[in-house]
Amino acid sequence: MKQLTVLLLFVSLNLTFGQIPNTLSNEEKVFGLSKFWQEVNYSFIYFNKINQTEWNELYKEYIGKVQKTKNDYDYYRLLQKFCAYLKDGHTNVYFPKEIQDSIFNTNFGVYRLFLKNIDSKAIIIRVNDSKKKEIPIGTEIVSVNGTETKKYINEYVMPYISSSTDYIRQDLAVAYMLEGYVGTRYELELKLPNGTFKSLTVTHSKTIEKKVYPSFETNQLLDLKWHDDIAYLSLNSFSDWEISSIFNEKLPELKKAKALIVDLRKNGGGNSRIGKVILHHLTNDTIFYGPKTQSRLYIPTLKAWNQDKYYHDFQYKPDTLGLGDRNLLKTSRIVVPTAILIGHGTASAAEDFLIYADNQKHMTTIGESTYGSTGQPLMFNLPNGGIARVCTKKDTYPDGREFVGIGIQPDIKITKKLSDYIENKDPVLEKAIKYLNTKK
Fold it and tell me: I need a surface site. Which of 178, 245, 285, 372 has the fewest CB within 10 A?
């Protein structure tokens, strides 16, 4: 699966539009809209789930709207809103690089603000180091430009988000609610953890200060740590085969573990085969059942006969290890009590990893629901450097259970609370260690 990349770009009402390029003709604007509409009609796997009459009426309405946009930014924002109607996490519209490079999310000159959806509130969970006393971790943004935050998000942010699940849509709305073009200014009202209120005006510009609080964890493909005799293995992406090589290098050390934690909470996906190869070392099985998939099979003659069910199921053949593979793995299998940490950031190929691991009795998932979106996107170009993708494949469990639009549910649910962010604690990891200590 392609790595899940989320680009949700928003603008406040007082953006200085003079800074934004305006290069597209009306013909190009209509062509880009029509190209996206056409690819959805032919390739979108969930096309049968949308109201096709509404979709076509929306297209006709947007033919007029795109021609009235004042610049390229405004145009692509409208395409994102059109795309969001489909409610799919693997179907997106992305800005041209020229525009993308002039858009900030966390940078406000002397301030850096990182937001998180906690209990349906917009909470600041990280700031640049010099501002940690002025804006403590746990500070809530209660209003934006004079509008209560929830209302602001619903009106100006949520309509532009492409997501398969409501809770991810809310997460993304909070995380990107202050994203905008250089020069975008926001009037914020803050509620500090001690209950006092503070007004703050911020304007998007590059932040020179690099150090943030709390500091970022290392963003490596793979991270290995130890909690006594429990190995903690963070698999942060399946987008690069290098992670498999790094994993193989760690195997001699991992064999010392009495129990194992596999952290997929930051894994937004990539190539499902990479995760499957790593999983081979964590189970005694020689047969692996992956997702059952469905794609569309378009035959114009059937359409002419009014047989408009152009879908075809493909059950992947079970992945069976050859004799040579089995012998090779005999010396490198690590089959111990295993906790897999999952959360809203566990997406796409990382969710496929969980499908392959579903029947493993020594594995237990701990955390929150996963992202709830996977599939094979079809990528194509839009006018003046824009890019779009449309999801072409539906995945389910081998027995047909659905998880797209729902999320894979943990065996043990643990949610990180506001107090955990303030105290910089990881209750999911703590629960996993405690759980595994009872299983060794």
Answer: 245
From the number of C-beta atoms within 10 Å of its C-beta (0-12, 13-18, 19+), residue 61 rates as exposed
Q: Is the dihedral of CA 383, 387, 388, 394 positive or negative?
A: positive
Residue 285 has what pLDDT?
86
State the virtual CA torsion across 138, 168, 273, 219 in degrees, nearest 10. Answer: -20
State pLDDT tens for residues 121-156.
Answer: 999 999 999 999 999 999 999 999 999 999 999 999
Residue 51 dihedral angles phi and psi, to the nearest 5°:
-80, 105
Angle between helix axes 72-84 and 26-43 (nearest 10 degrees) is: 20
Contact between 205 and 108 under an 8 Å Cβ cutoff? The reply is yes
Asked if 32 and 386 count as a contact pair (C-beta separation under 8 A), the reply is yes
Residue 412, phi-psi category: left (phi > 0), alpha (psi -120 to 50), beta (remainder): beta
Rounded Cα–Cα distance for residues 131 and 202 (Å)? 13
Burial of 227 (0-12, 13-18, 19+ CB in 10 A): middle
Backbone region of residue 269 per phi and psi (left: phi > 0; alpha: psi in -120 to 50; beta: other values): left
Question: In three state form, how does the secondary structure of 102-133 look?
Answer: CEECCEECCEEEEEEEECCEEEEEEEEHHHCC
Provide the residue ranges of all domains of the chain, joining segments of one domain with +.
Answer: 104-213, 222-286+321-372+407-435
Are 46 and 66 a contacting pair, CB within 8 Å?
A: no
Q: Which of 90-94, 178-182, 202-206, 313-317 has the lowest mean pLDDT?
A: 313-317
Please give the structure tokens belonging to residue 155: 């009106």
Q: For residue 11, how far is the Cα from the chain centroid?
A: 21
- Report which of 261, 257, 274 is spatially closest to residue 334, judged by C-alpha positions: 257
Sorting pLDDT into bands at 50, 70 and 90, what band is 298? confident
Pick the CATH number of 222-286+321-372+407-435 from 3.90.226.10, 3.40.50.300, 2.40.10.220, 3.40.50.720: 3.90.226.10
